[in-house]
Amino acid sequence: MKKKKSRLLYILSGGILKEDFVIKHTRLIILIVVLLVFYIGNRYTCLLKLREIDNLQKELLDVKYESIHESGQLTGSNRMSQIEQLVKSQGLEIESAKSPPYIIRK
Fold it and tell me: How far is Cα 23 from Cα 12, in angstroms, rounded to an integer?
């Protein structure tokens, strides 16, 4: 138990940094640490982009449904019976033609 405490104290006090193995491979250790930081940053950025893509897809779906709803309402309001009811409710004295339109050809 005492050896484990002394090993932990040896590591925490920085004595391990004086070992030959660590000194010989300092560049490799620094490279690994830099790559780890780069990897973590890249993953974080990727997760943010994926979250933004999900939000934009939900928004696109909402806009698509709203567009379909508005298109249906516009189609319904363009029917001849709807237009006649609107004209009557406005009090305009306009009537629909009783005869079909004539086609004039040259």
Answer: 17
Backbone CA torsion sign across 72, 74, 80, 81: positive
Q: How far apart are CA 92 and CA 14, in angstroms?
A: 94
CA distance 77 to 80: 8
For the chain (106 residues), the mean pLDDT of every run of 10, in chain order, is 72 77 87 97 97 97 94 78 80 79 82
Which residues, 6+ apart, have CB-to-CB distance to 96 below 8 Å?
80, 84
**Phi, psi at residue 58, to the nearest 5°?**
-65, -45
Judged by DSSP in three states, 101 sits in coil
Helix (H) or strand (E) holding 3: helix 2-12
Taking the CA of residue 69 as centre, how many other CA atoms within 13 Å lie in the half-sphere pointing to its CB? Answer: 6
Full-model pTM: 0.53
Q: What is the dihedral sign for C-alpha 86, 90, 102, 105?
A: negative
